[in-house]
């Protein structure tokens, strides 16, 4: 502990924790930029990373909605599905708006245009749900979004002739490259860029006056309303914003980037539970923490499909080998559940929160604040002088 304290003091007196954090973040970004160029990495490894980027977007956007704004929703996967299904159907069939005389044929709309429409539709559905429910307390939103997500999944499953049912719906490829390795590398950078852009947009919202209003609403809606915050407006705003983010992520991810097609199985409540678990493990009050928690959790779940166990004390198997492969199957989810229980019991701000807290220097601010408060408690005259 003494060694760590000396190291901490040296860091504080030197380059500073925040600068060290920026340096570490830069190294992480360089690693992700370099990774697909490593010839030793397989396309499967790149696919796992692409999936990790997708779930990082889902978890961080849910952290914005629930962890920062205090709106607990189970509808994220449904809005993701809306973006993907609408993009796929429009690219396949086009659409007509009779009242406005608008007719779009499949030949006249590109994959990007279909993705934009899917994103907008996801936002419009979020607007309708928000307008109907966000005047009520959070419990009603959670219950309704569970029902809405399940109804949407059943509709996509049963309308076989239109959506493909359990076989899924193929989306128009966003990128058409014949060479598989090149295509996977482009898809990797596309999903990584989307993650960075989404995080920057959400970070901008969180660190704006809107973010301050959202945190005030999360702590006490009545007090925020009494201070002049239009609670319903900002609730709907953040709900629509996150709905559009996940709709965009779903439309791009399933446009032959992370998967060939979207299937109703991806919209199950279990998948939404995993998104929530990723955010909680990483830290649901931190965008970076939730994104990192989702990526690391997703990678570990894939890495643990097969675990090679080396026998100790010179023991060998019947075939003479000193190791065996354990195909974990569903057991890896049991271990994931134990990590979740540990997080909720001992580290409710997330496993990554202490690291983020240290690099940001927030603990120093908290220590100074507590110290000043103690000084004011010991000497009330200091507080009176401060008020003057």
What does this protein look like?
The protein is mainly alpha-helical. Among the domains are: 1-40; 43-268, no CATH class. 69% of the residues lie in helices and 5% in strands. Strands 1-2 form a two-stranded antiparallel sheet. A two-stranded antiparallel ribbon has the order 3-4. It has a two-stranded antiparallel ribbon with strand order 5-6. A hairpin with a 4-residue loop joins strand 1 and strand 2. The model is unreliable at 368-373 (pLDDT under 50).
Could you say which overall geometry the principal axes of the C-alpha atoms support? globular
Q: How many H/I helices? A: 17
Mean pLDDT: 81
From the alpha carbons, calculate the radius of gyration and give it in angstroms.
Answer: 24 Å
Write the layout of secondary structure elements.
Blueprint: H1 2-13, H2 17-34, H3 43-68, H4 76-93, E1 95-97, E2 102-104, H5 111-133, H6 138-158, H7 160-163, E3 169-170, H8 180-206, H9 209-219, H10 221-226, H11 231-253, E4 261-262, H12 269-282, H13 287-303, E5 306-310, E6 323-327, H14 331-346, H15 353-360, H16 362-378, H17 380-387
Antiparallel strand pairs: 1-2, 3-4, 5-6
Helix pairs in contact: 2-15, 3-8, 3-11, 3-12, 3-13, 4-5, 4-6, 4-11, 5-11, 9-11, 12-13, 16-17
């Amino acid at each position: 502990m003494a060694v760590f304290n000396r190291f901490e003091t040296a860091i504080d007196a030197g380059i500073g924790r925040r600068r060290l954090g920026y340096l570490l973040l830069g190294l992480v970004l360089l690693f992700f930029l370099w990774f697909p160029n490593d010839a030793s990495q397989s396309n499967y490894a790149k696919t796992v990373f692409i999936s990790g980027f997708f779930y990082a977007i889902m978890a961080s956007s849910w952290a914005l909605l629930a962890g920062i704004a205090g709106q607990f929703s189970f509808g994220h996967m449904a809005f993701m599905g809306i973006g993907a299904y609408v993009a796929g159907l429009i690219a396949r069939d086009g659409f007509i708006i009779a009242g406005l005389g608008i007719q779009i044929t499949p030949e006249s709309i590109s994959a990007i245009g279909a993705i934009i429409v899917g994103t907008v539709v996801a936002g419009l559905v979020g607007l309708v749900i928000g307008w109907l429910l966000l005047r009520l307390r959070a419990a009603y939103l959670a219950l309704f979004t569970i029902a809405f997500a399940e109804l949407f999944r059943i509709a996509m499953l049963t309308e076989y002739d239109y959506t493909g049912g359990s076989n899924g719906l193929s989306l128009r490829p966003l990128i058409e490259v014949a060479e598989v390795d090149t295509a996977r590398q482009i898809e990797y950078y596309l999903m990584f860029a989307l993650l960075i852009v989404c995080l920057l947009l959400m970070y901008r919202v969180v660190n704006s006056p809107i973010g301050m209003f959202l945190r005030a609403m999360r702590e006490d809606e009545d007090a925020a309303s009494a201070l002049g915050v239009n609670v319903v407006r900002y609730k709907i705003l953040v709900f629509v914003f996150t709905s559009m983010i996940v709709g965009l992520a779903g439309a791009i991810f399933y446009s032959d980037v992370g998967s060939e097609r979207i299937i109703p199985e991806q919209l199950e409540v279990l998948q939404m539970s995993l998104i929530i678990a990723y955010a909680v493990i990483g830290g649901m009050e931190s965008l970076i923490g939730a994104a990192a928690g989702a990526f690391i959790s997703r990678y570990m779940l894939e890495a643990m499909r097969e675990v090679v166990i080396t026998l100790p004390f010179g023991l060998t198997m019947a075939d003479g080998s000193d190791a065996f492969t354990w195909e974990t199957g569903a057991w890896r989810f049991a271990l994931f559940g134990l990590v979740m229980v540990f997080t909720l019991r001992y580290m409710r701000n997330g496993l990554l929160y202490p690291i983020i807290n240290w690099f940001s220097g927030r603990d120093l601010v908290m220590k100074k604040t507590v110290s000043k408060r103690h000084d004011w408690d010991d000497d009330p005259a200091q507080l009176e002088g401060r008020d003057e």
